[in-house]
Amino acid sequence: xxxxxxxxxxxxxxxxxxxxxxxxxxxxxxxxxxxxxxxxxxxxxxxxxxxxxxxxxxxxxxxxxxxxxxxxxxxxxxxxxxxxxxxxxxxxxxxxxxxxxxxxxxxxxxxxxxxxxxxxxxxxxxxxxxxxxxxxxxxxxxxxxxxxxxxxxxxxxxxxxxxxxxxxxxxxxxxxxxxxxxxxxxxxxxxxxxxxxxxxxxxxxxxxxxxxxxxxxxxxxxxxxxxxxxxxxxxxxxxxxxxxxxxxxxxxxxxxxxxxxxxxxxxxxxxxxxxxxxxxxxxxxxxxxxxxxxxxxxxxxxxxxxxxxxxxxxxxxxxxxxxxxxxxxxxxxxxxxxxxxxxxxxxxxxxxxxxxxxxxxxxxxxxxxxxxxxxxxxxxxxxxxxxxxxxxxxxxxxxxxxxxxxxxxxxxxxxxxxxx
Amino acid sequence: xxxxxxxxxxxxxxxxxxxxxxxxxxxxxxxxxxxxxxxxxxxxxxxxxxxxxxxxxxxxxxxxxxxxxxxxxxxxxxxxxxxxxxxxxxxxxxxxxxxxxxxxxxxxxxxxxxxxxxxxxxxxxxxxxxxxxxxxxxxxxxxxxxxxxxxxxxxxxxxxxxxxxxxxxxxxxxxxxxxxxxxxxxxxxxxxxxxxxxxxxxxxxxxxxxxxxxxxxxxxxxxxxxxxxxxxxxxxxxxxxxxxxxxxxxxxxxxxxxxxxxxxxxxxxxxxxxxxxxxxxxxxxxxxxxxxxxxxxxxxxxxxxxxxxxxxxxxxxxxxxxxxxxxxxxxxxxxxxxxxxxxxxxxxxxxxxxxxxxxxxxxxxxxxxxxxxxxxxxxxxxxxxxxxxxxxxxxxxxxxxxxxxxxxxxxxxxxxxxxxxxxxxxxxxxxxxxxxxxxxxxxxxxxxxxxxxxxxxxxxxxxxxxxxxxxxxxxxxxxxxxxxxxxxxxxxxxxxxxxxxxxxxxxxxxxxxxxxxxxxxxxxxxxxxxxxxxxxxxxxxxxxxxxxxxxxxxxxxxxxxxxxxxxxxxxxxxxxxxxxxxxxxxxxxxxxxxxxxxxxxxxxxxxxxxxxxxxxxxxxxxxxxxxxxxxxxxxxxxxxxxxxxxxxxxxxxxxxxxxxxx
Lengths: 420, 662
Fold this sequence. Notes:
The structure holds 2 protein chains of 2 kinds. Chain A contains 4 helices and 29 strands. Chain A is mainly β.
């Protein structure tokens, strides 16, 4: 019977329907009351508890739709952008949002509604999101899995269990996932990390190679996978190397010393690698390094430049490397945030701000960065205090704010969905 | 292993007692039962109290379970028998709550939290909760300090005429693989001195079924899964002994306490994770003593002393996560001297000085010395108006050998309590209080690796309370007693210590940032009916409304939103029925809707939960032996709920108890 009511009332917000149903049962209860003058007070108290004690069926987390203040663009390609909200650890609130560029919609929290049968939803702490072929991959760190979905619908296709997984990249039909946990270590404090290989057709793990301590971002270039090792669990003995893995044999062939606590690793179109280090958050600041081939004929990469620019996150688009940095200032008790663009060809700082209308002051903690390859729009996410909803800001290529929208908790990772 | 230790301890103690008792001469003096009855004259605002039979009859396993029946209180319960349970009064935060064990505060300088799930009710006779402070001026300076106080009182020995030994043993068992034997031994060495010893062993695998069920908006089942809670086991031993002496105008008491436990930390249930690998060992020991003496009809003095050593060992064995293995050693030395002087018959003054030293070692080696000075006065006009005022000065000297110097602190906090009885013949009392209090930053707040902030200031809370109380007490009438009370309050918390994001990657620091505005109403009523001789029915109803909103910064998305885990509505109902040697209890707890994060949006919405518990018990007397059997069913309707998000609570569960008293 309930289901019929629901169907009849479709279009009315669900909470409202439930409130109505709640009241109905209260009314029924009222009718059954004996109306003694003395008893009324007591019944009233009881009724009060009953009214408030109406516990509903626990619903699957619903999706929300917000209209964006931008123009409809039926031919936009990319069609849209997925955003992975990390969610605070233990909250199980990792979630996926979608910006629909064609219809100018912001679709919040679509995973649970698209996949209502997945127990405990997407999971705990999202760490990376990527698209390869027609599949969408979300790396869920504290749920120890890579969630695989249909890229157009967000409907689940399967999952691959990888302990403490961090980032994912692709090459020739395979996915490569960095993970903090590699082989079982005899010394529990010296746990090496690993890179897992997944066949993107069968979604099976087909290989695994041990790398450095707590590996983070990785990139595939030629026949090699480059992995930035952080050693973040080993304070103060951070790792300082990039692991080089030969892709077909899944063998670590080299470790390139770079700087302590490495994090981001991106390639540009000239075959250079851009690597950021977090520093030790104290005396050694965050830094940005460039690696290039030793010589024209060599495959070996070496550090050629240390830019002395702090970098928390970066995004390379054409010749431009957009970056920002957040560093805590002990004296002022606040974060020092900087933004900038580096020309990857000349390795020179082009500008020290890419937001030009002064709205960067509204960003508490920049946490994600992405550039639209089609129109040059810049997306910066704000994680706020990590335990409340973050915000996605969109700026045009000249750095003027186009729109801002509320996201989930800690919006951080973004990937474009292109037309097939 | 614990079992062996348990009995070793028992025999050792028994031997020492008999050796001790022989050396004492039997006294001919008769001092029967010594009872410290809270005088209504002194106590301007009486506590909410659960004690004796009523406490035993409630379906409660630990002190935390019992406290749920007080108004104005929120419990954070992480589920199960070994799960952490902390208490927060009137939304001011756990750290503002003082917990006193036989009159002396239990400390945790490291994180300021006392796990009340650790205190079993087997040996606790009385639990009292005071908003503000105990409105009594003859107390230690520290007792003027907390924003709210819980007093736990263990059983006081009472000997029937001609008896010099009491033995009480009990066994509790039931769901969660619980096996919980306990024994209490009381011995009267002479009329003026007696000794008690109690021991308890708690062993449980902590396993219970829990269920998560979700429905789509169109009413179809999305998922429905039942799993078993793992890693919630506990193995704990508690040993306690005391020596009590009664003087002609005073008393003294020395108490030893030891608690040793190993338990699993069950952790959050998230997608793809059904089990965690955290383990926790607690080892708490203390010795405390009190000596109180009335030197004349006007002057009384009281000394308190305590030395405590706490050891916590925490490991995270999950092979998928960062390996953690930490040991924390805390030491506390405490001394207090309180004095009261009667200036006139209706005018008392008091002064107290307390000293405490706290040390913490392992991840950081720090210590702190604190001095408290209090002065208070109590005044009565025509037996109808009672006024009490106190001022407390707290001086904290921080000492720290590793990092930059932490500034010392000095704070004055006043309090004022009033009560007025407008008609001498009617038990109608109006009451009001104002209190300012603060909590010190904990060692974790100040020093925790990377996160601590040495420059934190204390966190303040101001409370305003206005209330009314009406009582009827009649012996042997159908309506034996009736009680109704209402309080409205406004609290303002500022400089709240909150974690603030720092730089990149989930790095935090602690800042004095939060500001909370709290308004609430507490209602309590109780009625006892006597009918058809020997039937007695007691009903208790308690309701709390609270609005606790974050007013830190208008720019925050959660500005003026209800703070996390504070329900607007909560309450409880208890019905107790006694007939001859039978007793029955029904209790109901309701916690209304609330949000699990700062923003009051639907993604953070948490449903109300309400549980019904029932119990039945029967007493028997065979010669000198008293036997008591009881059976409890908790969460009768088997509701599936979380108190804290992702920490599922047990479904319906059972508990049985057999008690023997000689």
